[in-house]
Amino acid sequence: MPIAYRTEQLTALAEAGVHEHIFPGAAWAVGTVDHGVAGAAGRLTPEPASAAMQVDTLFDIASLTKIVSVWSLTGWLVRRNRLRLDDRLADLLPGTAGYALAPITIFQLLTHTAGLPLRARLRASYGEVYDDIVRGVLREPLEGTPGQAVEYTDRAALILGFVIERLLGQPLEQALAEHVLQPLGMAATGYGPLAPRHGQLVAPTEYCEQAGAHLAGVVHDFSARLLGGVCGISGLFSNVPDLQRFLRAMLASGLHGAGQVFDAGWVRASLTVQTGSLNPSRGLFWHPAAGTGPEDDVWCHQGFTGTAMWLSPRRGRYAVLLTNKLYYTRDSARVNALRGDFMRCAFGL
């Protein structure tokens, strides 16, 4: 079924999420390399006087940062033979020499099989000084045996961010802007905090006791805030049009080979199960969408604030759903159920 025919169903799902108080508002898109449809539902907040959500509203995309920033830049380095998946951290980050992280490989970080600590605990473990935190993370013990289990952890993206900065000799936000955002025309995307701009809507997230208000334009993730708002874990703000540009470029790499940012081989490897018989299955940072099988070829990444994006090279289709469900609750059960409905509708499953 052509994408245009799904617009009514996708719109209804987004509006249902608003009416059922799963999130105050949402923006979404589904498309191919050449064509897409997009929409928005609800408002920035539940207040009747709040501004209506727009397709180009900026969202704290949370862990989608791992894909847009770290995964993209890792692929950029691999393509230029400046990084290999079997490279060990001992050879990339001198601060790991003699410590448990030394033999960990880039591949193990990308597949969440490194045995890293699962919980952040950055401030409790290492204080609030940036250099102390970095030193502590690079010297900390493992919690599992590398290669034996798939366990999602923010540490993987955090450490890869350190690797990228060292190899490129640039802060992460500068490297991202130069090598990914600018080439793809993603002018609205960047690390916060966001300076107020006339007419630019930003979806608020969780209520912050310290601020006395819902966070808006300031990253929600505490680890990212502790690190100055810029890291591999979280921190990016983006919108539907920019994420469409990103996902279209990924799809285009499969049609045209190496693009300016994405290489077909990197995208193909990332959207292939790399973890053998281990569960849950993982590609390189991407994972098969919940409720799908290998024959469906739908890959996903989600963000804690209520964001998600999917890609299916076999179908030549992408989907994005950005919500600010965290405005209401940290519980993800209801938004995950709606995400599943949205994904099935978007990809005709």
Written overview of the protein:
With 349 residues, this protein is of the alpha+beta class. It folds into two domains: 3-66 and 190-347, DD-peptidase/beta-lactamase superfamily (Beta-lactamase), CATH 3.40.710.10; 68-173, Methane Monooxygenase Hydroxylase, Chain G, domain 1 (Up-down Bundle). It is 35% helix and 13% strand. Strands 2-1-11-10-9-8 form a six-stranded antiparallel β-sheet, with helices on both faces. A three-stranded antiparallel β-sheet has the order 3-7-4. It has a two-stranded antiparallel ribbon with strand order 5-6. A hairpin with a 4-residue loop joins strand 10 (307-312) and strand 11. Helix 2 (64-79) crosses helix 6 (154-168), helix 2 (64-79) packs across helix 7 (172-184) and helix 9 packs across helix 10 (264-270). The N and C termini lie close together (11 Å).
Q: What's a concise summary of this model?
A:
This protein has 349 residues and is an alpha+beta fold.
What is the fold's blueprint, element by element?
Elements: H1 7-19, E1 25-31, E2 36-42, E3 59-60, H2 64-79, H3 106-110, H4 122-126, H5 130-139, H6 154-168, H7 172-184, E4 190-191, E5 207-208, E6 213-214, H8 222-226, E7 236-238, H9 240-256, H10 264-270, E8 287-288, E9 299-303, E10 307-312, E11 317-323, H11 333-347
Antiparallel strand pairs: 1-2, 1-11, 3-7, 4-7, 5-6, 8-9, 9-10, 10-11
Helix pairs in contact: 1-11, 2-6, 2-7, 9-10
